[in-house]
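debug: dumping io for the single-chain case to check the tokenizer round-trip. Nothing else runs in this session.
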Amino acid sequence: MLHSTSAPSFGRVISVRGSQARVGILQAGRMSPAAARATVGRFVSLRSGTSTIVAMITDVSREHLPSSDEYIASASVDLLGEILDSSGPRPRFQRGVTHYPAIDDAAELISNQELRTVYAPSGSDQINVGTLQQDPSVTAYVDIEEMLSKHFAVLGSTGVGKSTGVSLLINEILKSRPNLRIFLLDVHNEYGRCFGERALVLNPRNLKLPFWLFNFEEIVDVLFAGRPGVPEELDILAEVIPMAKGIYTQYQNAERVGLKRIDPKSIGYTADTPVPYRLVDMISLIDERMGKLENRSSRIVYHKLLSRIETVRNDPRYAFMFDNANVGGDTMAEVISLLFRLPANGRPMTIMQLAGFPAEVVDSVVSVLCRMAFDFGLWSDGVSPLLFVCEEAHRYASADRNIGFGPTRKAISRIAKEGRKYGVYLGLVTQRPAELDATIISQCNTLFTMRLANDRDQALLRSAVSDAAANLLSFVPSLGTREVLAFGEGVALPTRLRFKEVPAHQLPRSEAAISTVPSANSGHDMHFVGAVLERWRGATSHRDVPNDPAIMERPAARTLDAPMLQPPLGLDPDRFSLLKKPLR
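debug: decoded output
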């Protein structure tokens, strides 16, 4: 029986209300010295009939004491679950309370054995993330199926070990689910070394993300550098992009050399259909329309649009989008295969390093990646699950609708609301949960909360967790480094735990750099400075920048059977010769 292992009681139940009870704490002479440490945050057990109720102390006070000299204080406790005597080999724990405590039932500090019963792994789907803060001898497990399938979030201010916690969780997931594909948006390029050979690291130097994969809103965001588009220019783009896709289809079929005029209504493509088109065809269509205008002033809109397209196309920072922009080739299958590791080939994880992308297009790139992740899950009926981890999530799904890029927020929100049905799971990481769209964070059923000092962040958390866990949030501002409050479906109880140590080779770069960066006293020669400048200038020039051979996997473009030898309809021959010239 459970009672045989119980510790001396430190108090008795004096009131019960819903999911809470109040315990009178006995005078020091009536309890053990250990029980005198019954303070806020400790788990306690209340003996009630055939079960032991597990509760947590959330408040201790001398106010409103019963008129008796046997109590020195009273404690509020949240009732969290119960350990049931069972006919099996050992007791079992379940959430919720079926047998409420009665007045005068004994309250004891929970024993080590009872904690082990509460946190015992219930199956092979458990990962070891650390130890309980109350008793470091008890391992804290997380149910990986519940955590992944119902989404999770890691929240915490800068410097509290958030990135290290993310590295720990993903490495444990990779161990437990070696076939699960993981896609990580690495905003600060700090995770490249954390997962060894199991991860493919992509950045603008080795990524090919063709411009035609961007939908209409996303390509407009690229062309207008994140600013609102000019309505007249948007109308032109909305008309010519579907037609350029139709022209590409004719090229691909190679049924005739000459191109006949295409009626936009008969194409069947929209500006959002993910099929290839060539920049040279789109420009020729714009040129053709401009040539029909008699009024010189009305051509200005077309000139401005052409100028925008050529500026972006010739900017070396956008080479990941516009390389081979006029050659064509349907590489969508290869791009999807590379990005989302199908097949994985021993590397089930992709780290997308965003720090090297032009700031003006980061939002639209993230939008494309989120949207493609969801759509592939949707149209494959979720047969190959994917975990999509979004670092600095508040940057892409802001609570303020006037901040950020609408399609990115929409894409992340779609994964949060519907992704689990199609095998696309979401992991959010943010230091400012109050700035994150509340509807998105509310979809995360497991929360790992580290130290947060901001009152707005704490208020948002209180609205996101259950009443039984809300009182725990008073501990959030005082959590130490690597300490976590874990709530939700993935953990047995709302728990204060400490993430386990992460091996040095799995530390994110920002934390590992503290001990690995040479001191200023060691000095740097001119060769070092020259190498830095070479990389700096290489990011904004047309010269080739050497790639890391370990991350050179990328799709090879398929060329068309019939190469384009003559300018397309309506395009000036001089502009055609400029556009034929390769970017690199």
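debug: round-trip ok. The chain has three domains: 2-118, 140-208+331-513, 212-327+576-580.
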